[in-house]
């Protein structure tokens, strides 16, 4: 693999990349994408809400916060058998990563967490990369998840540190960074990105990318979400994100984090196949599949399969990095 991945980007360097004329930016990002990745491969991930609603946090974009009246029904933690049946359906439809989300502020050491650990074991045994997003984690909890077979942990920064307090007041930016550190220490891969359309400035977007690209190790996966405004939340009246802003974010992320999976996440339902194709050209190589992302709509498996056929895309296999490293070690000893 190429060894020119940098973790010392300056804000002004990232700003210059972000503000490159759009077609030049897409070309540059596409060139780097070809150098580091197999461009026809897209990681297909499925996200399931295993515990929905009733969250004590005040994230301004989230319909699962108990304090907002958004029509989201509160559901207790799902049964393991239900979750594994959903994972099998996702695998049969082409997903190679299965992510389980629970509307918790933080993980508590209780029976529910024990049940999640059992779910992680079950999905791992199916040969899928298993991911969780459960809120804040201690070092010990991260280790328990790792021991159960967790492959990735999602914990988004959402926005820049400066804009963060306008979106969430129930936990700090540092809390988020601490959880990511605990995940890293446990040897679990990191999935961390953000949302655009939260009323942030262009500078906020650049600062968030800077935080991600200057971590000691880049996140293995960076989701770029477009806000889906939900009635009843404080951001219900925010206007729809322009597709060119998504393309610009994806291209910049690809240039500064060349080997990372850049995930085209929430907001795909309002994008045409042509607009999504531009995102793939600009370096996106991961999507969420299935008709729902936690509680927001998402294109169906059938729609995505048709798009993959049209664009010549194929799902990336599970544990590809590990398999590559293993074959390189074997070749080195021959």
Automatic annotation (TrEMBL):
Pathway: Cofactor biosynthesis; biotin biosynthesis; biotin from 7,8-diaminononanoate: step 2/2. Catalyzes the conversion of dethiobiotin (DTB) to biotin by the insertion of a sulfur atom into dethiobiotin via a radical-based mechanism. It comes from the Bacteria. Belongs to the radical SAM superfamily. Biotin synthase family. Its cofactor is [2Fe-2S] cluster; [4Fe-4S] cluster. PANTHER family: BIOTIN SYNTHASE, BIOTIN SYNTHASE, MITOCHONDRIAL. It holds the Pfam family BATS. [4Fe-4S] cluster binds at residues 55, 59, 62. It comes from Hydrotalea sandarakina. It catalyses: (4R,5S)-dethiobiotin + (sulfur carrier)-SH + 2 reduced [2Fe-2S]-[ferredoxin] + 2 S-adenosyl-L-methionine = (sulfur carrier)-H + biotin + 2 5'-deoxyadenosine + 2 L-methionine + 2 oxidized [2Fe-2S]-[ferredoxin]. This is Biotin synthase. PROSITE patterns: RADICAL_SAM. GO terms for biological process: biotin biosynthetic process.
């Amino acid at each position: 693999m190429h060894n020119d991945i940098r973790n010392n980007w300056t804000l002004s360097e990232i700003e210059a990349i972000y503000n490159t004329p759009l077609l030049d930016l897409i070309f540059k990002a596409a060139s780097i994408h070809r150098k580091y990745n197999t461009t026809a491969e897209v990681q297909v991930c499925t996200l399931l809400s295993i515990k929905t609603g009733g969250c004590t946090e005040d994230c301004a974009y989230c319909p699962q916060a108990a304090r907002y009246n958004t029509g989201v029904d509160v559901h207790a933690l799902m049964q393991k058998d239900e979750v594994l049946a959903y994972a099998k359906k996702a695998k049969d439809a082409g997903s190679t990563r299965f992510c389980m989300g629970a509307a918790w502020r933080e993980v508590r050491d209780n029976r529910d967490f024990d049940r999640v650990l059992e779910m992680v074991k079950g999905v791992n045994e199916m040969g899928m990369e298993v991911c969780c997003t459960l809120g804040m984690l201690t070092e010990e909890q991260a280790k328990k998840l790792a021991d159960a077979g967790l492959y990735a942990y999602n914990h988004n920064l959402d926005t820049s540190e400066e804009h963060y307090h306008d979106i969430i007041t129930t936990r700090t930016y540092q809390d988020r960074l601490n959880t990511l550190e605990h995940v890293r220490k446990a040897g679990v891969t990191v999935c961390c990105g953000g949302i655009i359309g939260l009323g942030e400035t262009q500078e906020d977007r650049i600062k968030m990318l800077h935080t991600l690209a200057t971590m000691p190790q880049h996140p293995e996966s960076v989701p770029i979400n477009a806000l889906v405004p939900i009635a009843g939340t404080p951001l219900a009246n925010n206007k729809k994100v322009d597709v060119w802003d998504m393309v610009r974010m994806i291209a910049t992320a690809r240039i500064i984090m060349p080997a990372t999976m850049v995930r085209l996440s929430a907001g795909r339902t309002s994008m045409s196949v042509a607009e999504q194709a531009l995102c793939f050209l600009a370096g996106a190589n991961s999507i969420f599949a299935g008709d729902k992302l936690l509680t927001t709509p998402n294109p169906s498996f059938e729609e995505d399969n048709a798009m993959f056929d049209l664009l010549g895309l194929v799902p990336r296999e599970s544990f590809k990095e590990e398999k590559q490293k293993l074959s390189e070690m074997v070749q080195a000893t021959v």
